[in-house]
Amino acid sequence: MSSLLYLHGFLSSPASVKATQTRDYLQQHAPGVAVICPELENSPARLKPQLLELMAGHAELSGGDLRVIGSSMGGYLATWLVEQYGGKAVLVNPAVRPFELLAGYLGEHINPYTNKHFALNQDDIGHIQAFYQPTLARPANYRVLLQSGDETLDYQQAVAHYQGAELCIEEGGDHSFVGYEQHLPSIMRFLYLQ
């Protein structure tokens, strides 16, 4: 049985629209693919142990067989995983250097999906920066979906960072990536899941 790992973004959850659309699509078109969609830790210090435990607990994801979709911060984490374990990733409006952006988000937060309260402090920025991959060993292992209207992230950062990857750049849209569900057939083909 094949597995797909889906990593949601900051202040999101497995109940996000794109995660739900991904599960629904596979249930209908490739029911043999299991979707692993963890609720990522809000605390950056707990993210790396969570991801390492996840990989250790799912042998089918390692050995170069990792197939992952990552949205925003999830795209940043997916890049780290592919660089560590091999495999292929589709990144949706990925964060490239979120440690720079999150420096403006220090303080108290509530995850709108889970209602969990947490705080971001300066140490957390270092934990996020530890995932940064300045260069990619195999850019062709990435397909990057970008919309120029992303109000949260500068899509040009991703264009520069993922040179050599399969880039799909659409004019307009927003950070949620409008029309994501229409890309699911090509996403699954890229990941060899359909």
TrEMBL record:
PANTHER family: ESTERASE YQIA, ESTERASE YQIA-RELATED
A Pfam family of this chain: UPF0227
Organism lineage string: Bacteria, Pseudomonadati, Pseudomonadota, Gammaproteobacteria, Alteromonadales
Protein name, per record: Esterase YqiA
InterPro entries: AB_hydrolase_fold, UPF0227/Esterase_YqiA
Organism: Alteromonas lipolytica
Domain of life: Bacteria
SUPFAM superfamilies assigned: alpha/beta-Hydrolases (SSF53474)
